[in-house]
Design goal:
The complex is a heterodimer of chains A (283) and B (309). Chain A has 283 residues and is mainly α. Chain A has 15 helices and no strands. In chain A, helix 5 packs parallel to helix 8, helix 5 packs antiparallel against helix 13 and helix 9 packs antiparallel against helix 10. The mean pLDDT of chain A is 88. Chain B contains 14 helices and two strands, in the order αββααααααααααααα. Chain B has a two-stranded antiparallel ribbon with strand order 1-2. Classes of the chains: A mainly alpha (283), B mainly alpha (309).
């Protein structure tokens, strides 16, 4: 293990380490801690410039209630969910099917397709912006949740296919071979044999996708305009314009936007990290 | 019986065709939905953008073919050069996330009580939206109420208005971007460190390697895959920088914090006008820059695939 385990060092070093750890964490998360504190401050504190001292009173309920009653925040959260959840489901279906094909079958275009999926995943959004927006306008999908879902599903299919393909590659191929010898159809093999085996990968993909889509801001700005479809990221930006210097409300809104992905990450930590660090250990 | 066989025969034959070729047809059926979606929303738009970049188009009236006029205009566009220069600044400074992430990963790679929780808390900045990161840092930089003002105040100075000052604004935004990016690199390295062979580290210790030498000669070579991924995601992240610029400054003051990604958006779709063709030309330039890195990444993956067979 590197660096040398702290328990093998002198008692003084070990103690220093244990004290340094929480201090480092507080410094690192200072921005978040400050936002949390500000989101429960009173208007008085804000006007008096008391941003960094102890709050004079705790106005958590008032501030958050105010965000929900005076702004379309609830609608924004709902929109984000309406975009995120169907996209997760849709991408997983697309990428399982495609990843299975690329992992199991040998055919000439296999490698080429695989690389197109990977490359597509890295292109700058701006090169897609004008045509995708036009397409959405022409098909009546501009300013709708469906338009965002379709775009995200298609774009994310690149990364997810790469992910599923590599995962399915790692499964024992003999299982599939023997099922074929038994005369089981190709789709049945996929559905009854492979899908149950890839469950852990599906969990990792689902939680990664949730975070990526929830946090998307660019496409939310480009493909959506009205409050009826605006996800929370873009909604927060537009509210920020109205809440000039009302930092307690900006903070409360920020916390609301940050919560779901943080919660998701905490619940599914192992899967999340496994998904994100794919490729960081080999190659 | 004989009749039944006669009527069954054609079906058997057609079934036979599909059956004989099923291994050729099956992959395409599995791939079809993803390929169609990817084609419509990713592959075709790339070529459409390239073609639009040769037109002058406001998105409403008929596009007018102008040849390479948009690209020639770019050569004389002050704002384009500012964006390009800022993109390079982003690329260079964003790279700090890689060693910084390694440093934090080394700091956290211990087995004390509660370390798992520490690791996940350190990772938080990456999980939250860049919109939130941008808002928080804008407020930090606020010259009257921000934490920066507070620190300057302690020493009796006045804080510069970072986001309103052409000299500092890009650095301010990059600093905000580094926060989540360092967390990302950290998690890559933590996973990498898990897989560092304890035997080799022990062998190194016996040979008298310690500290920096151990890190450089024994540990870092084993972390090469993590470093590679960290560099790739950091380059992509730097070139994709859009959210923070949009939230914190909208490219201002006077376009001084613009980057290609934001400048493109601004020309093609904002109150400054709808110049789709010109915007597409900027996007093509950004795409070509990105392609250099993408090709490098793909080449490496290709070699790996060939090795594995």
């Amino acid at each position: 293990m590197f660096p040398r385990p702290i328990e093998k060092s002198s008692a003084a070093t070990a103690t220093t380490y244990k004290i340094a750890l929480p201090i480092a964490l507080i410094v690192w998360l200072l921005p978040l801690i400050a936002v949390m504190l500000t989101s429960i401050r009173s208007v008085g504190d804000i006007n008096a410039g008391n941003y960094w001292g102890w709050p004079s009173s705790f106005n958590m309920v008032e501030n958050y209630t105010s965000v929900f009653t005076n702004t379309p925040m609830f609608q924004y959260i709902l929109n984000s969910l309406r975009v995120t959840i169907p996209t997760m489901a849709f991408t997983i279906v697309l990428s399982c099917l495609a990843g299975y094909a690329l992992a199991i079958y040998r055919f000439r275009a296999n490698m080429l397709l695989f690389f197109i999926f990977i490359a597509g995943n890295f292109v700058p959004f701006q090169i897609l912006m004008v045509p995708v927006r036009n397409l959405s306008v022409d098909t009546g999908l501009y300013d709708t949740v469906t338009g965002l879902v379709l775009f995200h599903s298609a774009f994310q299919a690149g990364f997810c296919t790469l992910f599923m393909r590599n995962f399915i590659r790692g499964l024992p191929f003999e299982l599939i071979e023997s099922a074929r010898l038994e005369g089981v159809g190709e789709f049945k093999i996929f559905w009854y044999l492979v899908v149950p085996l890839v469950r852990p990968a599906l969990a990792a993909l689902a939680v990664l996708q949730f975070t990526f889509i929830w946090n998307d801001y660019f496409w939310a700005t480009v493909l959506v305009q009205g409050d009826h479809a605006l996800p929370i990221t873009a909604g927060l930006k537009s509210l920020n314009g109205q809440w000039v210097s009302q930092w307690h409300l900006v903070s409360a809104g920020s916390i609301l936007a940050a919560m779901p992905p943080v919660a998701m990450f905490f619940l599914m930590q192992k899967h999340f990290i496994a998904g994100l660090t794919l490729g960081a250990t080999k190659g | 019986m004989a009749m039944a066989t006669a009527t069954d025969l054609p079906t058997i034959e057609s079934k036979g065709f599909i059956h004989r070729n099923r291994m050729k047809i099956a992959p395409w059926l599995f791939l079809a939905p993803a390929i169609i979606m990817f084609l419509i929303y990713v592959i075709l738009p790339i070529f459409q953008s390239m073609s639009i970049s040769f037109y002058e188009w406001d998105g409403l009236s008929d596009p007018v073919f102008v040849g390479v006029a948009n690209y020639i205009e770019l050569l004389d566009d002050e704002l384009f050069y500012t964006s390009l220069k800022n993109n390079i600044l982003w690329l260079v400074l964003y790279m700090l996330a890689v060693p910084a992430g390694l440093f934090i990963a080394l700091f956290l790679n211990q087995n004390v009580w509660g370390i798992r929780l520490y690791k996940s808390m350190f990772f938080f900045p990456f999980v939250i939206s860049q919109v939130v990161v941008g808002l928080v840092f804008s407020w930090f930089y606020d010259p009257t109420n921000g934490i920066l003002a507070l620190i300057y105040g302690i020493f009796g100075g006045t804080a510069p208005a970072i986001l309103a000052d052409e000299r500092y604004v890009t650095y301010g935004i990059i600093a905000a971007g580094l926060w989540p990016q360092i967390a990302y690199c950290m998690i890559l390295y933590l996973t990498g460190l898990n897989n560092v062979s304890p035997d080799q580290v022990e062998a190194g210790r016996l040979d008298g390697a310690r500290g920096w030498k151990m890190l450089w000669y024994v540990v870092l070579p084993q972390l090469r895959p993590a470093t590679f991924i960290a560099v790739v995601v950091t380059v992509i992240g730097a070139l994709r920088s859009f959210d923070l610029v949009s939230i914190m400054t909208s490219g201002g003051p006077y376009g001084s914090s613009n980057v290609l990604a934001y400048y493109m958006y601004e020309t093609a779709l904002s109150e400054y006008g709808y110049r789709m063709g010109y915007g597409a030309a900027i996007a093509v330039v950004l795409f070509l820059i990105m392609m250099v890195y993408i090709s490098f990444f793909l080449y490496r993956m290709y070699r790996q695939e060939v090795e594995e067979g």
